[in-house]
Design brief:
This protein has eight helices and ten strands.
């Protein structure tokens, strides 16, 4: 049988994909991160489905549950917060499932940074201002970052940043970035995007940390830094330009 790693989205139950919802309703076993999965989302499970909260389980215990379900002939819905491709520990689980011969499939979901950008009402790739996005995190007690993946290295490019797992280190992070982007660079923080308690603050690198603290932001927050957040007067993209020959050119930027 198959383990489906399903992107559960950023929080709101209706932001799971139709494919993810349908698989959740079909699988007789569901493993979910209890601290990040809303009750409304679990309501999509079949009434008699086995539900396993992984919040207090080790990686080995989680893998054992997946292998056990497979050997019992059960498909498994393995819910991942946001999208499985980002900070989901899917790689570690897959590495253990493959030697056991357990088939698996990835089902994409709405990542937190995308939900947060939607809350801000901003496009993160604005013509002439910024066409790239770096998704990264802060280094603290978590797994060490690769040596080259430092905030300083990313900041040297001036690229728009989306920082996860950094809210409790926001003073250090914004102080470090201000030396490269300038204290007047636009910044924003979205906490609990799409969830009850959703909170948004907007400002610059000079004042965003103070605003985030005053708002009581402590978890599930994405920090954005970049000129695209307050862009104006930028050129239109070529995609919908009246000068483009649509008869001979494919739709592209």
């Amino acid at each position: 049988m198959t383990v489906y790693f399903i992107g559960a989205g950023p929080g709101a139950a209706d932001l799971i994909t139709v494919r993810g919802r349908d698989l959740l309703a079909r699988c007789p076993v569901c493993l979910y991160p209890g601290s990040m999965t809303p009750t409304d989302l679990l309501a999509y499970c079949a009434p008699d489905a086995e539900r396993v909260d992984t919040a207090n389980l080790s990686l080995e215990e989680i893998t054992a549950k997946l292998v056990e379900a497979h050997r019992a002939g059960h498909d498994v819905a393995r819910l991942c917060s946001g999208d499985p491709s980002l900070y989901s520990a899917v790689a570690e689980q897959v590495r253990r499932l493959e030697p056991e011969g357990v088939p698996y499939e990835m089902v994409p979901g709405v990542p937190a940074f995308a939900a947060s950008a939607a809350v801000l009402g901003r496009e993160l790739t604005v013509p002439g201002i910024g066409q790239s996005l770096v998704i990264t995190r802060a280094q603290a007690r978590s797994t060490a970052m690769p040596d080259a993946e430092t905030l300083e290295n990313f900041a040297r490019t001036g690229t728009t940043l989306a920082l996860h797992l950094a809210i409790n280190h926001i003073e250090r992070v914004t102080g470090e970035l201000a030396g490269h982007y300038g204290e007047d660079c636009p910044a924003a923080v979205v906490a609990l995007a799409s969830q009850p308690g959703e909170t948004v603050v907007r400002g610059t690198l000079a004042d965003i940390a103070g605003q985030a603290r005053a708002a009581g932001m402590t978890r599930a927050a994405t920090i954005f830094v970049g000129r695209v957040l307050a862009a104006g007067g930028f050129p239109d993209s070529f995609l919908y330009s009246s000068t483009r020959d649509r008869a001979s050119q494919p739709e592209s930027l």
